[in-house]
Write a structure and sequence with these properties.
Protein name: DUF262 domain-containing protein
Number of helices: 26
Helix content: 55-70%
Strand order of the largest sheet: 1-6-3-4
Oligomer: single chain
Organism: Halopseudomonas oceani
Largest sheet: 4 strands, mixed
Number of strands: 8
């Protein structure tokens, strides 16, 4: 393998006429997070006046006019984002200096497809070109103020870039404002970026060698996800078998879009759990390499495209056409119930809407009983979901009854559920909302007041701050206020205005408000003459029995 190694800076890297550094199809979209952007900014401003080593940039150059960036795209993209912000500041302060930077972003006399000196992957190319690379006075330059009005799929894929531009601007503008000479400060940071950041460029001749280096860099600790590696592996396999790399890259982009912002590695792991008993995050890439070898690229990608659409519906239930299925998915979302996704993936491809709704509801009930209330071992629960998933993936609808029995057998008993429920306190707000809204809908299924979460709130019957009247009413039990105030037996739902009015009023005055409420949980409190620790215990036991009936296998 012939490898060229050279020490360089951005001035030399972007200064080659009619050359375009290109992000190849098998690279992931721009993904740097705030922590990495912050580190880059501080590295630059804290080493002004001296050089700073930025690491290696690996290029693959079968076409000398379009060398592909194998490693370094995240750093280069972020540096160019900052450079463009500096150019835009020149536009405001001294426009005749804009061209000094723009010459390193744009090839003045090149063909249209080589117009710019840096081209991100397809996911980021249009936003990067239209909002970043175009000169401020270019008619095709789009107003940054409109960038968050992009279509949702394009916004999702470019959100990190958008956030990081705003983050860098949030550093640059105050830094200039704090300078005695902002224009001089701009020129200083421009000079630092162009000549003071040093890189080692490693240039390899072809995609096969690029693939080797890509995996080698990962073995040395480069932060590549299983999704990044799998995409790379699929595209390298396609290239070796003379399949269309571009078409496969488009299919991969479709998979990413279908996930609706869901994590690609988590999706791949849940997909594998429909077939493999145990899959750790670090196992995902190795297992998929075996899948590629045994099934081939095209069949595997076709299946991933289908499953990604189902998975995206777990992330965004509003995409589900069937109302009943959509409501269950929304409940699973509320519970953060991701462990059942492997079973739901298998069910989604095997069952019709009615059967899918019932199976998804079983997953909701089991997750609620097993994890939310009884706090049992999550690894065991995932094992049950895997077993059900494997049955459905293997047998299809014919395995539905067997899959259901596997999940039903995992459910905690009624006695275990009720005992655990009776011990619960406030905890996570979304859990309390889920439970009390579920109970309310059971008690009053026709009531419409709960449609707006902004109008209905959690009310502490015994208030969080005890007034003198409450202390006198509780007597010696007032010392145990902190132990009981957040117990579920002391909570109810109440409309926003009534909730504000109730506040820490004495119980007798609260009763009048509870009677006015249209919410059944609040109305039922009218049966109590007074309120204290015994009543909290008794009501929580009552709620436990109701919940056992609602969330029953």
């Amino acid at each position: 393998m012939i490898i060229n190694v050279d020490k360089t800076n951005l001035n030399k890297l972007l200064g080659v006429p009619n050359r375009q550094l290109t992000i190849p199809a098998y690279q992931r979209p721009y993904a740097w997070e705030a922590e990495q952007v912050d580190e880059l900014w501080h590295d630059i401003v804290e080493t002004l006046g001296s050089n700073h080593f930025m690491g290696s940039v690996v290029l693959c150059s079968p076409d000398q006019a379009r060398p592909e960036v194998i490693d370094g795209q995240q750093r280069l993209t972020t540096i160019i984002l900052l450079l463009a912000l500096i150019r835009d500041e020149y536009q405001l302060r001294k426009p005749d200096l804009v061209g000094r930077i723009q010459q390193f972003l744009q090839n003045a006399y090149a063909e249209p497809d080589l117009r710019f000196k840096f081209r991100p992957g397809n996911a980021n190319a249009r936003v990067f070109t239209d909002f970043i690379l175009c000169a401020p006075d270019d008619d095709s330059r789009r107003d940054w103020a409109t960038v968050r009005q992009l279509a949702s799929h394009e916004l999702n894929r470019n959100l990190r870039m958008i956030e990081n531009v705003e983050r860098l601007k949030g550093y640059l503008v105050p830094w200039l404002a704090a300078s005695d000479n902002p224009l001089q400060a701009l020129e200083q940071i421009e000079r630092k970026i162009m000549t003071g950041l040093e890189f080692v460029v490693i240039d390899v001749p072809d995609i096969a060698n690029a693939f080797i280096i890509f995996e080698t860099l990962n073995d040395r600790g480069l932060a590549l996800s299983a999704g990044d590696l799998l995409k790379n592996h699929l595209l390298a396999a396609a290239a070796k078998s003379s399949e269309s790399v571009e078409a496969l890259a488009a299919d991969w982009d479709m998979i990413i879009d279908s996930l609706e912002g869901g994590d690609i590695t988590r999706f791949l792991r849940h997909y594998l759990l429909t077939q493999h008993a145990q899959v750790q995050k670090d196992d995902v890439f190795a297992l998929f390499k075996k899948e590629v070898g045994s099934r081939g690229v095209k069949p595997l990608v076709k299946d991933l495209k289908l499953m990604a659409r189902f998975y995206g519906q777990f992330i965004k239930p509003e995409l589900v056409a069937d109302k009943a299925v959509r409501e269950v998915y929304q409940n699973l979302n509320t519970l953060r119930a991701t462990m059942c996704y492997s079973a739901l993936l298998a069910a989604s491809s095997a069952l019709d809407n009615d059967a899918l709704r019932d199976f998804a509801r079983l997953c909701e009930v089991l997750t609620f009983r097993y994890s939310t209330i009884c706090s049992k071992d999550s690894k065991e629960l995932e094992r049950f979901y895997h077993q059900a998933a494997k049955v459905l993936a293997t047998k299809g609808v014919a395995g539905l009854e067997e899959a259901r029995k596997i999940l039903e057998a995992a459910s905690p008993s009624s006695e275990e559920f009720v005992l655990a429920f009776r011990q619960q306190s406030m905890g996570r707000q979304y859990i309390v909302n889920y439970i009390f809204r579920g109970i309310e809908n059971h008690l009053s299924p026709e009531e419409k007041t709960l449609l707006s979460t902004q109008q209905v709130h959690i009310e502490h019957i015994m208030p969080q701050t005890l007034s003198l009247a409450w202390r006198e009413a509780l007597g010696e039990d007032a010392d145990q206020h902190e132990l009981f105030v957040n117990r579920w037996g002391n909570l109810t739902l109440l409309g926003g205005k009534l909730n504000i009015t109730a506040s820490n009023q004495p119980f007798a005055e609260k009763l009048a408000l509870y009677r006015q409420s249209k919410i059944a949980l609040a109305q039922a409190l009218a049966a109590y003459e007074d309120w204290g620790l015994p009543q909290i215990e008794a009501r929580q036991a009552q709620l436990a029995q109701i919940a056992e009936g609602i969330w029953r296998i």
